[in-house]
Design goal:
With 108 residues, this protein is mainly alpha-helical. It is built from four helices and two strands. The protein has one domain.
């Protein structure tokens, strides 16, 4: 059968990415999950954050009086991807249709 590439044997390299907002510290994993990248590519910023933070951390973020806007989110994701060595490409920008969908929802 030959050699098997064992993903379980890989050691995760890099350090988690610590960041703060509203006077509270949060941590993203050293390597973003495919799930988080997929949400980001679809323009679902909240689910991307949820996938990166998990239940407890996301709840702490949601309970803050301040709200994370798109400009700060983009700056955060840019710094995180640079830290993690991820090529941003198009994955960090919501598509035109995703932006239009969010805008349409906001008008309802």
């Amino acid at each position: 059968m030959g050699d098997v590439f064992d993903l379980d044997a890989l050691v995760e390299e890099g350090e988690p990415f610590a960041w703060s907002f509203g006077g509270t510290e949060f941590v993203f994993p050293a390597d973003p999950s495919i799930e988080a990248l997929e949400y980001l590519a679809k323009g679902d910023l909240q689910m991307c954050l949820y996938a990166l933070l998990g239940d407890d951390e996301y709840r702490r973020l949601d309970e803050l009086p301040d709200r994370l806007g798109q400009a700060k989110f983009q700056a955060l994701i840019g710094a995180y991807f640079k830290h993690a060595g991820v090529d941003q490409g198009k994955s960090s920008r919501p598509s035109k249709s995703a932006r239009q969908t969010r805008s349409a929802r906001a008008l309802r």
